[in-house]
Amino acid sequence: MIDRAQQSSGPGSGKPNKPVSANRRVPADGKILSEQADELADVLLSRFMTLLRAKVTERNGHLSAADLDQMGNEFRDSMDNIKEIFLEAVESCARSKEQSRMEAERGNLFTRLMVHKFEHRFVSERQLFQNPQALSRRILPGFMTALYTMVGTQKQEEFERRAEEMAKNMRARGTDDLDWAEVYRTSAARMIALGAEIEMAQHFREAEKRLDWLQAIINANLISVDENFPGADWQFSREAAVRMLRDIFSDLRATLDHQPTRQKIRNKLGPDVIKVLDDVTTRFN
Known about the structure:
Elements: H1 4-7, H2 33-58, H3 65-77, H4 79-107, H5 109-115, H6 140-172, H7 180-185, H8 187-201, H9 207-220, H10 238-248, H11 250-257, H12 259-269, H13 271-283
């Protein structure tokens, strides 16, 4: 932020400051927008008070309407500086948000891969009761809790590590902004998701009881909204749970139908696990 001594033109000068260079940029770490807004307000007040003191001193404490008009014109002449400060604040905030988005993206790649399987069902809260096949995005905290419970801490860390490695390789070939349509098409992403589906499926040996659990844990963590907000009464139903699991296990069904891959899974996990996977994918078909 510009030093206020430089921002003010000095008592009695009546001349605007030299505009800040358009190439000037705020530090990369930036400040939150509310702090920058406070500083901008301080700059405005400081500039106005400088003009006021100068004019009061010049007129021995007596100001006329013409004096006020002159002060307004001088203040308006200073707006180039103030505009530049405001634009820099907005730019800094935008960079900060983008950095936060990228950091969040890097930390939730595995979860995003799994949510992708049913995100086509998400609609606005206003549309929930018009579309019984739809889901609210408010289920996401509960889904994440259920997902991490089913795959376990060790597997979760492994899937997240693999997802980050996949993203790192993709970024090395392009930019920091991942093309998610491309991510979902990669064999690496499909293998991560398939591994998670196998872990999840084994928690549905007693499918009906586990459905009750899934429904309860998602509803317990459903993001709350004001009771007057559209869709506030919506709940994650048993039918919604079944539809979501059908989406999640769709790739697993296809994998089990591919005999060479099925045999690899059987060799690694054993015939008992294959039977469980068959039962689960049949239930959620």
